[in-house]
Amino acid sequence: MKLRYLFTALLFTGAAAPLQAQSIDHMRKLLQEIQQEIDCLEKEQAETLKPQKEPQPVESTEYVDGVIAVDTLPSGNDAVMIVLFNDNTWKYLRNRDYVKDSEIYTRCWDTTKLFPYRDVVKLADLPRSVDIELVDSLKCYHYPYKAAIRSKFGMRRRRKHQGVDLPLKTGDPIYATFNGKVRISIPSSKSGGYGNLIVIRHDNGLETFYGHLSERIVHADEWVEAGQIIGYGGSTGRSTGPHLHFETRYCGQSFDPERLIDFQSGNLRRETFLLKKSYLDIHSSASQDFEDEEAEANDEKRAEEARKALASAQYHRIRSGDTLGGIAVRYGTTVSRLCQLNGISRTTTLRIGRSLRVR
Ligand SMILES: [Zn+2]
């Protein structure tokens, strides 16, 4: 009886213990599932609150230069006006009176200093991310220049390349990227390597830099429309070969222009841009150091020369009786040139069967 009681008790505890453990595990699992469900719902809700649309590329607008505005009409919206042109076309344009007093065009506005935000807006003071409406409903955007990039944004040798380099033919038109106001239009002598330089501040708060221009046709404090020709491409300043050095900056800090523009197609990648602080860095408020740009081009030139020299290299197989002098005469060169090409001296013994570079 006593044994039977013990057995039952054992059986009971034996059964109860795993049951308890099982239910705890079960509860844990359930809780986990519920938590996952909540996470999912929260994520979904966040996504509904802030729609994560596929970025919509914006095609470049067409801007026909030489066409003159002849009249303006009200559009029903005071911020927008209808402009009639002398070629019988018309388009909606932003009414400048509505943006001219905005903080964008008054804060740190300096038509001589390249970097007026410096010492005023520190990188540390900027928010972790900023939502930038690149274009408004009128989608005023035009590529600055359309080409395959020759040199990208980022580290180049030991220093930072603050923009992208777009190769061009001298005299090719350069366009204002967005609507805005010209802040800087200065000659080579004042730009420190940028050559003929134009800087435009835009309604969206960004600034764009256009360097090495052959000609500037807009002046500081002038309002410009996206797609308006602001100057012509060239190779002024510290530059080797005609190209546009193009920068995009926010509060003076540079970030990769390729985040905004697909330079090959000329399209703007998206209408709104989430500028993350991680796109900027402590060095990005600095001016472009063009010494590297030149050094890199020189490196390229030297490499190209070396490739060419190697492609046209000619060799002579050394035979018995050959002398450096004899070989030099035969190939129309000099002994010192032969020594230089082969890294040998005049007294080096010529080994039969070896190849000697003669050209
Ligand atoms: Zn550059």
From TrEMBL:
Q: CDD domains of this UniProt entry? A: LysM, M23_peptidase
- Kindly give the InterPro entries that the UniProt entry links to this protein: Cell_wall_metabolism_enzyme, Dup_hybrid_motif, LysM, LysM_dom_sf, M23ase_b-sheet_dom
Signal peptide, first to last residue: 1-21
Q: LysM domain location, by residue?
A: 314-358
Keywords assigned by UniProt? Signal
The UniProt GO MF terms for this protein read: metalloendopeptidase activity
- Tagged with keyword Signal: yes
Q: Source organism's superkingdom?
A: Bacteria
Report the protein name in the record: LysM domain-containing protein
Q: What is the organism field in this record?
A: Alistipes communis
